[in-house]
Each structure stands twice: as C-alpha cells, then as structure tokens.
Automatic annotation (TrEMBL):
It comes from Meloidogyne enterolobii (Root-knot nematode worm). Residues 41-211 form the FAD dependent oxidoreductase domain. The lineage of its organism: Eukaryota, Metazoa, Ecdysozoa, Nematoda, Chromadorea. SUPFAM superfamilies: FAD/NAD(P)-binding domain. Signal peptide: none annotated. Pfam families: DAO. InterPro entries: FAD-dep_OxRdtase, FAD/NAD-bd_sf. PANTHER family: PYRUVATE DEHYDROGENASE PHOSPHATASE REGULATORY SUBUNIT, MITOCHONDRIAL, SARCOSINE DEHYDROGENASE-RELATED. One of its GO terms (cellular component) is mitochondrion. This is FAD dependent oxidoreductase domain-containing protein.
C-alpha cells in the first residue's frame, strides 16, 4: 500500500518499543510501563507545527493523542524563528488561516496563562509601481471578503505613520493594524500546556525510527517504532 494512502485506512497507532543492549532489564520494564502502547493519533515532532496539531486534535475532543519528540520541545527550528505575524496573503484559504491564528493566539494566552509575547504593532507595505498598487487593490477585495482589517493609504498617510520614509516615487500603501509578532518557543509551550490539560500526552527524548502499516486480522493501524537507546527512565516526560 502506498504510504500516502495509509491514513485513509488507519484506525489506531500502535507504539513499538525498541530497546537496545544499552538498557538493563529493570530499565526496560520501567520505560515500557511509562510509554503508552497505543493511541488514536500520534504526532511526530515537538516543534510549533507538531504542537499546534496536537492542540487542535485535543481541542476537537481527541484526548487519546500522543506527541513524540526526539529531543526537547522547540529544539529544532522553532526556537530561533522570527515569530512575525503578517496577515497579508493573496489566497482566501491561507488568508483565513492567518486571521484565525491571530485570533487564536489571543485566546490561547487567556486559556493557558502562558505569556507568548504576542504584540500587535501593525504592518505597513508600500507600492512604488502600478503593478504593485494593482496587487494591493486586488488583495483589498480578498481581505474585505474574509473580514481582515486593512487600510488603503495615500503616500502622505504612509509618511505620517512612518516619518523617516522617503515618499518620492511611492504611489501609496496598505496597513494591517492587527499584524504583529510573538515568541515562537513560548507559543509552543502554551500549546503543550493546553494539550496536556485537554488529556493529550507528550513524550520528549523519544526518537521515532520507523513508521509502517500493521495488519492484525481485520484491524488496520500504524506501527510506530521508537528508539529508547541510551535514555534513562526519568528522561521520558509524559
């Protein structure tokens, strides 16, 4: 079965423990008891995408969900991401996703009590060519359709918002008052806290080494193999 079709048939995910000779028998038994052997869904990777996926599954009522991270949460590219939140996008679907994200981040802070460093400081884009100005006018129609606040500015209004800007040759600009930035690592921890509060499980220091379809009689599932070599039982954080 092609891998891209597996999810259409999966009913559950089974966790297979792989313990090499680096463990004593007692350590193996301790880890086996602490790691879940089955879950409705397993998310691999504890970056912002994985944690957001886990949170939204749990938010939809899937409490039997599990996240596996090979090191620590946000230890990949998330911790040094810029954290910018530009709403501008000439696509209805992505535009609505951006809008939802900004609204959701504000709710998440209140929901978890975790300061994600969310600040709305506005965004300003200028047009120096007719083609760019036409693009902004086209985008304005999309923004109005999905109820995203956007202001069309003359070059004088641009200069008022950004006094050091040289407006010679500028046709005008657009402004998103809701644009801003946040701290990605803080956001990830907020997702993690909210997910755990909703019943989801997170294991760090738990690398996945293989994912394969598993067929037992009429049952269809995925077998996810994790490597616990050289790990101590107190490093498995559930």
């Amino acid at each position: 079965m092609p891998k891209y079709k597996i999810l259409n048939y999966v009913k559950s995910c089974k966790i297979s423990l792989f313990c090499s000779n680096g463990f004593s028998t007692s350590s193996n038994q301790t880890l086996t008891k602490r790691i879940k052997s089955e879950s409705k869904a397993v998310v691999v990777g504890g970056g912002i995408v994985g944690l957001s996926t886990l949170y939204h599954l749990a938010k939809k009522g899937w409490s039997d969900v599990l996240l596996l991270e090979r090191k620590e949460l946000t230890s990949g590219s998330t911790w040094h991401a810029a954290g910018l939140l530009p709403i501008f996008n000439i696509n209805y679907t992505i535009g609505q996703l951006h809008k939802y994200s900004v609204e959701m981040y504000q709710r998440l802070e209140k929901e978890t009590g975790v300061d994600i460093g969310f600040r709305q400081c506005t965004n300003l884009r200028v047009a120096c060519t007719n083609d760019r100005w036409d693009e902004y006018m086209y985008y304005k129609g999309i923004a109005d359709t999905i109820n995203v606040p956007v202001n069309i500015l003359t070059k004088e209004q641009v200069n008022k918002l950004w006094p050091i800007c040289k407006i010679d040759g500028i046709l005008g600009g657009i402004q998103h008052p809701d644009d801003g930035y946040l701290q990605p690592a803080n956001l990830a921890q907020a997702f993690a806290k909210a997910s755990r509060d909703l019943g989801a499980t997170i294991y760090t220091q738990t690398p996945v080494i293989d994912i394969n379809p598993l067929y037992i009689e009429s049952e269809r599932s995925l077998c996810i193999k994790i490597n616990l070599r050289n790990l101590d039982s107190d490093k498995i954080n559930g």
